[in-house]
Amino acid sequence: MTKQLSAIAAGAVLAAFSLSPALAQSTAPMPVNSGSMSGGMMSHGMFGTVDHGMPAGKAGGDGVTYTGAPDLQAAISLVTAGGTPGNFSLVKAVTAMAGAKTANAEVAKLTKQYGAAKVASFVAVQNFAVNDAVKIALAAGVKFPSPMLHGAALAKRVVGLGLIGGTYYEGTQLDHLVTNKIHEQVMGDIDQKFGTEADGNYHRIADQAHYDLAQALGVTSVKLAAYH
Question: What average pLDDT does range 200-223 have in this prediction?
């Protein structure tokens, strides 16, 4: 559990450490549309539209849907940082890209805020999501390039893909990495395997962790998503 918790915080550290919102916003393709409806997982209740266990669009963790071409270089570089395709380890990826010195305070903060069980769930869902996305992409005939991004350069590219108006959204990042179609399919698989509550929890903690570490490292232009 300690290693898992350290991985979470270190992952957020590596993301925030190399954040450069202005550069990321200028280099990432423009997103389109609001919300994320292609997966057919939306429902309506007394609290409004719910998508994969959370509020839809920017009210939740999906941000703004991006339907353009994926950044396959960023995707394969991230996957291989965590091991061989299909065997992703968040712990290994974080170890490859960042140290955990700055992570200790964030581990304590996230654990106090959400509880150890929810943080551990986030780790499990993250690992599954990456492996499932790779499986779906390969089955669809996607040809990945050789990984060329490492360390801070990889972190900057990946985190920048999730920024909308300076706010980080996990769903927007996933759209850019693997396409919205595959993102939605993976979210559906998460719902079936772990439940929609775990899916929403995954997005919630990702949003909060990226904001926390950005602020801690002086990147004060990054804003906190409503869903955190």
Answer: 76
